[in-house]
Design brief:
Layout: H1 4-17, H2 23-37, H3 40-51, H4 57-62, E1 65-66, E2 71-78, E3 83-90, E4 102-103, E5 109-115, E6 117-125, E7 142-151, E8 158-177, E9 181-184, E10 189-194, E11 200-207, E12 215-219, E13 227-228, H5 235-251
Antiparallel strand pairs: 1-2, 2-3, 3-11, 4-12, 5-9, 5-11, 6-8, 6-10, 7-8, 7-12, 8-13
Helix pairs in contact: 1-2, 1-3, 3-5
Length: 252
């Protein structure tokens, strides 16, 4: 199902990711694949083909939406439980409900910056006894509320269950300009945002047949609602978003 570019992308992803690989090898393979597919000319051909209706526009539209972290999430290729290839369009200053959240993922991931620039921070959770008394003013670390995020059983909505207070330690800060890539294991806590005045486009690859049942979300910005609805795109809106993305890639 799909045109030449869609089928070629499916073959590349299946060949790279469908074996039984340990997590670090899976993340490295994903980074290599997403870098190859994210080359601007190749990605433009793939997006243009998808925007004409190739692939599975109905299925992909159902899984495309504005993410709570504040970016547009467009599913390009659904590889079932083993991999999902998405385009993320980050708009400067477009904060969502969880724009400041620090989080991890259900499975290893890789991302390639096609246009613009991302900033990213990595964190660790301080264990009991590390960083001093968590209630002491000025104690080392960042106080945060912890949640377990999962998907609702009868919908794709996000469900957030409070899991108590925590204290985080910032371990890394970085900037990722166009042409750069990164890969992260599933448990890695991070926060990313658009770091330019113009939109940033990334190609995002989620991998792994064995996915965690929930992710961990940490926020210092106040309590979260118990559930956040995902609002999927209509098919025509999805195709229009792909056409707009293709135009961005042509003119940048």
């Amino acid at each position: 199902m799909g045109g030449r570019q869609v089928l070629a992308a499916r073959r590349l992803l299946a060949g790279a990711l469908d074996g039984e690989l340990p997590e670090h090898e899976l993340a490295a393979a994903a980074r290599s694949a997403v870098t190859e597919l994210g080359a601007p000319d190749r990605l433009l051909e793939l997006i243009s083909e998808l925007s004409s209706g190739e692939g599975d526009p109905e299925g992909c539209a159902r899984l495309s939406y504005r993410h709570v972290l504040g970016f547009d999430k467009l599913l390009l290729i659904d590889g079932g439980p083993r991999h999902m290839l998405r385009a993320h369009v980050w708009h400067p200053g477009a904060g969502g409900i969880g724009a400041e959240d620090i989080h991890n993922h259900r499975s290893p991931l890789a991302s390639y910056v096609v246009r613009g620039r991302l900033a990213m921070e990595l964190y660790e959770v301080e264990k009991d006894g590390e960083g001093g008394d968590a209630d002491r003013v000025g104690a080392e670390g960042i106080p945060a509320a912890r949640y377990e995020e999962s998907l609702a059983e009868r919908s794709a909505d996000w469900v957030l269950r409070p899991a108590g207070p925590a204290r985080l330690r910032l371990t890394h800060t970085g900037q990722y300009a166009a042409g750069s890539s990164y890969a992260l294991p599933a448990h890695t806590l991070h926060r990313a945002w658009c770091d330019t005045d113009a939109p940033t486009v990334t190609l995002f690859l989620e991998t792994g047949a064995e996915r965690r049942r929930h992710t961990d979300v940490f926020t210092a910005a106040g309590p979260h609602p118990g559930a956040v609805a995902k609002v999927p795109l209509e098919v025509q809106d999805y195709l229009d978003a792909l056409r707009e993305l293709a135009e961005r890639l042509r003119t940048w």
